[in-house]
Amino acid sequence: MAISVEDLTKSFGDLKAVDGVSLSVHRGEIFGLLGPNGSGKTTLIHCLMGIYRFEGGSIRVLDHEVPGQKLEVRRRTGFMPQEISIYQDLSPEENMLFYGRLYGLDDSTIRERTDRLFEFLDLEEKRSVSSRTLSGGQRRRVSLGIALLPDPDLIILDEPTVGVDPLLRKQFWDHFQELKGQGKTILITTHITDEALRVDRVALMIRGKILALGRPRDLMEQEGVSSLEDLFLRFEGGT
Ligand SMILES: Nc1ncnc2c1ncn2[C@@H]1O[C@H](COP(=O)(O)OP(=O)(O)OP(=O)(O)O)[C@@H](O)[C@H]1O
Ligand SMILES: [Mg+2]
């Protein structure tokens, strides 16, 4: 199992942002976390990465206990946060070097992987400009590059395709499939229902709880709806 979460609860004051969530992500699958704004997706991911402390339940990521072994988890996981955290004063290339060194990679490996990733992410023309001058979508591409840089077995992506144009979005998804083909595990959040159709299994998260979990087409069949959008709306409306 790449990730296993048992009865996880995380509150902010009176608000249970994650409310008794249990789920397992298998090795080698693309697992989607689908939910509306404020449903707890980012909070759950921050618990997985050991960024937030949680008051109830247990988490194992890549056979490491969180929070106890969170540093090991972070070293072995590629993470693309929802709030892009690239250094504005550094160029995309320098950001890769900075994060690559944090992951403990040597400079020649970083340069070689940066060349490959920037070609895929169509960032070659922008590689040495100040990141301050990048567009929003270009920033997200750099952020995805950073997540893929350590060539990790587990990749956690928090809404990676928001603000990304349709062509690149398609290329992102093709690349996720390719990574899966190499045996990598991907956890991805989205609130875009047709994206969620492309995952192996999806968990529908609403108000901190997982209300449905399974293969997208099985879930649609079980609920007698013809699209994930209808499923989403049905559960979100609480009917
Ligand atoms: N640091 C925080 N302090 C207090 N409340 C928070 C904090 N972070 C999140 N929340 C609250 O927890 C709930 C879940 O937020 P979270 O960011 O996990 O949602 P999300 O599913 O990622 O939403 P989105 O799709 O908008 O990214 C929201 O009601 C939010 O206001
Ligand atoms: Mg979020």
Assigned CATH architecture of the domain at 3-85 and 153-236:
3-Layer(aba) Sandwich
Quaternary state, please? single chain
Largest sheet: 6 strands, mixed
Ligand list = adenosine-5'-triphosphate, magnesium ion
Class computed from helices, strands and strand pairing: alpha/beta
Radius of gyration: 18 Å
Percent range for β-strand residues = 25-35%
The rounded distance between the terminal residues' Cα atoms is 33 Å
Strand order across the biggest sheet?
6-7-8-3-9-10
Molecular shape: globular
Indicate the mean pLDDT: 93
**Count of DSSP E strands?**
10
Helix residue percentage: 25-40%
Q: Which residues sit in consecutive blocks of at least 5 with pLDDT less than 50? A: none
The CATH homologous superfamily of the domain at 3-85 and 153-236 is named P-loop containing nucleotide triphosphate hydrolases
The CATH top-level class label of the domain at 3-85 and 153-236: Alpha Beta
Q: Helical element count? A: 9
The helix/strand series, from N terminus to C terminus, equals EEEHEEHEHHHEHEHEEHH
Describe the structure concisely for a colleague.
This protein has 239 residues and is of the alpha/beta class. The protein contains nine helices and ten strands.
